Amino acid sequence: MFSKKFERRIYIAVVVLIFSAALGVSFGAFILWPERRELGYEPVQPIQFSHKLHAGTLQVNCLYCHSGAVSGAHALVPPISTCMNCHAEVQPKDNEGRIRPGMAKLLEHWNNAEPIRWNKVNDLADFVYFEHSRHIAAGLTCQQCHGPVETMDHVRREHGQKMNWCLGCHKQPPTNNLKTADPTLTTRAPINCSTCHR
Ligand code: HEC
Ligand code: HEC
Ligand code: HEC
Ligand code: HEC
Ligand code: HEC
Q1: How far is the CA of 51 from the centre of ligand 1 (A)?
Q2: How far apart are CA 189 and CA 192, in angstroms?
């Protein structure tokens, strides 16, 4: 029906089309994968670090490890040197006197000067502007946005971080602010688009 050369072109075009469709679908699935975006997301971490033990039982203050939350946009996850303030001394062992596996991994990273690649739990879209320090200065607690982290062996995402979640709180009356609210505001926090999209 068609010339050999033309048939070959159709064949290549079809292969390219199928290939790009497959690529598009997998890329879409990757970025939209509900687990990565939604409530309750709880990634497996390279080292099992328990907030229940450290922030619950031992009552280490959140800001000891996440000092960025009061001073800047990012709360930050601590470097290993923060862990070593205690773990240079405290190195829990199992019944047979061997250093427990999680601790052994931590020490291995420390000795090799190799940072731990913690998986992100909360991850806002890049086009959204968010700042921790403003929220802490306004009197909010970590738990209002992250839930009872001090009871969690693995941190999970407590809020979907959709626009409605942010706006739901910002839209509340100014009288709901713990600290004195700006009397010129009609809502607890600004809701104009440029607050979060700049
Ligand atoms: C001893 C240090 C330490 C203390 C104390 C601590 N954290 Fe963490 N936190 C970490 C480390 C390490 C990670 C990264 C590993 C993980 O997600 O479990 C983390 C992760 C988190 C995350 C998830 C980060 C992300 O990727 O979205 C949140 C939220 C968090 N911590 C909140 C808190 C709160 C709230 C407190 C106090 C109740 C607290 N942390 C106390 C060390 C600490
Ligand atoms: C108003 C809600 C809110 C409050 C209050 C809040 N956080 Fe967050 N936190 C977020 C959001 C949203 C993200 C995701 C930010 C991103 O992906 O850019 C986040 C991310 C984090 C992370 C991951 C690292 C980072 O900075 O992105 C840690 C750790 C964390 N928060 C700890 C804390 C601690 C500790 C407190 C209390 C001192 C706190 N947060 C208070 C909403 C909040
Ligand atoms: C304020 C002191 C302190 C800090 C800071 C601290 N830890 Fe710990 N950690 C402890 C204590 C105490 C234990 C429990 C020891 C025991 O069970 O005998 C512990 C236990 C552990 C264990 C072993 C859990 C098990 O039973 O196998 C791991 C892993 C661990 N910590 C990781 C970390 C990491 C990672 C950091 C830094 C992000 C960190 N710790 C920071 C005090 C601390
Ligand atoms: C639980 C309530 C609450 C939630 C949830 C919340 N905010 Fe806020 N936000 C506040 C309060 C209170 C202020 C402080 C207003 C002030 O300083 O007067 C604030 C302030 C801000 C500011 C600074 C506003 C300015 O004047 O420049 C930004 C930006 C912001 N929030 C972004 C976000 C984003 C993005 C989210 C969702 C990911 C979010 N907030 C979720 C309560 C909240
Ligand atoms: C308090 C913070 C905040 C304010 C104010 C805000 N947004 Fe958003 N917006 C967000 C967050 C967070 C997301 C990310 C949602 C996601 O990842 O699904 C978002 C996402 C979006 C998107 C992407 C589509 C979607 O729904 O996911 C659009 C478009 C958008 N916003 C428009 C606006 C417009 C227009 C305004 C003003 C009327 C506005 N936003 C005000 C926080 C805010």
Answers
A1: 7
A2: 10
Q: Which residues of 43-60 are buried (b: 16+ CB within 10 A; e: fewer)?
A: eeeebebebeebbbeeeb
User: Minimal CA–CA distance to 52: which of 60, 40, 44?
Assistant: 60
| Distance (Å, whole) CA 187 – CA 164 | 15
Closest ligand 3 atom to Cα of 77: 38
- Ligand 2 contact, 169 CB (< 6 A): no
pLDDT digits (tens, 9 = 90+) for 134-152: 999 988 999 999 999 999 9
Tell me the H-state helices in the chain.
4-32, 34-37, 51, 62-65, 68-71, 80-87, 101-111, 132-137, 142-146, 163-170, 193-196
Q: What is the pTM of this model?
A: 0.89
